[in-house]
Amino acid sequence: MTRKAKLRGLLMIVAGIVAGSTLGDVAVLEAQTEDDPIVRLWASPTELSIRVGDEARVIIAGYTRSGARVEDPVVRLVGPRSAMRVRQGVVTALEAGDYELIATLVQEGGASAGEPVTLRVPVSIGWPTVARVVVSPTTDDRLFTGTSMRLRARAEHADGSARRDPDVAWESGSPDIATIDRFGRVTAVAPGTATITATVDGVSGAFTLRADPFTGASIAITGGVARARTGDVIDFGAEVRDPGGELLTGVPVEWSHAWEEPEGILAPPAPAQMHGSRFVADVAGIYTVIADAGPLSARTSFRVVERDVVQKLEIHGQGREQRVRTTDFWVFEGRDGRDYALTGAKRSDGFGFVWDVTEPGNIFKTDSIQVDARSVNDMKVSPDARYATMTREGASNRRNGVVILDLADPAHPVIAAEVTDYGLTGGVHNAFPTNEYVFALAGGDKYVILDVADIYNPRFVGEYNHPNSRLHDVWVLDGLAYSAEWENGLVVVDVGDGRWGGSPENPVFVSSLPVPTGGTHAVFPYISESTGKH
Fold this sequence. Notes:
By secondary structure, the protein is an all-beta fold. The protein has four domains: about 5-125, Immunoglobulins (Immunoglobulin-like, Sandwich), CATH 2.60.40; about 130-210, Immunoglobulin-like; about 220-305, Immunoglobulins (Immunoglobulin-like), CATH 2.60.40.10; about 325-465, Methylamine Dehydrogenase, Chain H, CATH 2.130.10. Helices cover about 5% and strands about 50% of the residues. A hairpin with a 7-residue loop joins strand 31 (about 350-355) and strand 32 (about 365-370). The longest helix has 15 residues, at about 5-15. It is globular, with a radius of gyration of 31 Å. The termini are far apart.
């Protein structure tokens, strides 16, 4: 009897045994085989409808070519990062809209012949019901006749979370005192009080403001420069005075700018930016900054020149590896006094490489290190050059983790340890070594902290997981860990600095800085030579 015939007979026996627990007439199996692979995926539910903040579990099963059902196949389950968070089959809704959750079968060996087996699950995310609307001014300025200021409306759900970009209907209860446009910009037309109402999904909030008579007689711009470089941030101020020369405080000032392009340059869409009274130019030219307060206006002009920091680079040498693509590298001085570089490689069958770069014009390979992996990602070396970290993806046993290399002989490193516990089982993309500790990313969700006083016996001592966040990169400088947390921007944690009570065993959050793009991929902290500051 052939192997296929035996397998077919076995499937018939299994089908008869488990008939009581089948879906329809399809037998339930625990795994696919080479001769009967999974050819399609199935999801429960087949489509998802949830609200922002809610969670739902999605169960994926597979069906083989013969029709047998495979429970819990190994799949990669992903969705738009800004819209949903997907962890171990649980979907958390983040942003309202219509999206797709994509399940892709992970093939044995890390690669498949032909198109991968994929399933798309429609996901509809709605907002929770608005519980209240809070209206407030965006500045501490006072309102005078003829001046404007902007109000904000925060539409809150029952749990206190805010709806992003709500559709607000604005209304003034006294349009003869103050008018308001559909974007929340209120303008005083006469002295008195007015109540402004903001409505979102039938729920309203109100704010009462007072408009005073405008007594300003003059406005002057303060600060600024006569000449600046592109990229310089320039601070301006405005002084509004009454007929007697007394300075008026709290007067709303609106800032704008105009640009005269240099000869030969066509106008780009955004030559400069202003944030309040702060200005920065991206393109050279003559600029005019304008300050308006009610009927008063002032302006000042200045020239912006190119920053002129372009330098020509000259290639002195190259270490060539033509078989694979280099992913990352780290240059260091070995304990033998020579200079080396470690490089990772994409789809390299687990190989990383060692290069002698002491003479830039004569770079040569000294060794290679192979681990169980499809790709080697980041290679980094501790400041004392005692050891290196090697991160990987695609291990045959799906236990990736971080590999620690002994650099006692820097030209020929040896594997000291492999750490695959503490959440490091999945592919590890980044790790950062200090002299005493390794900070390794775990599942793109957190970083774990390993004591490597003995590199042959690393010891778990702590971890940090920023709430409602995913991360891609972490860097440690002087006891502070700086992590790139995608939509949450830069996150700083005390892991040994001590000023906030943190340590490797007890990381303490310090601060965070969201960035405009909402997609922070990497961070690099450094000490400024000119100021001595981090």
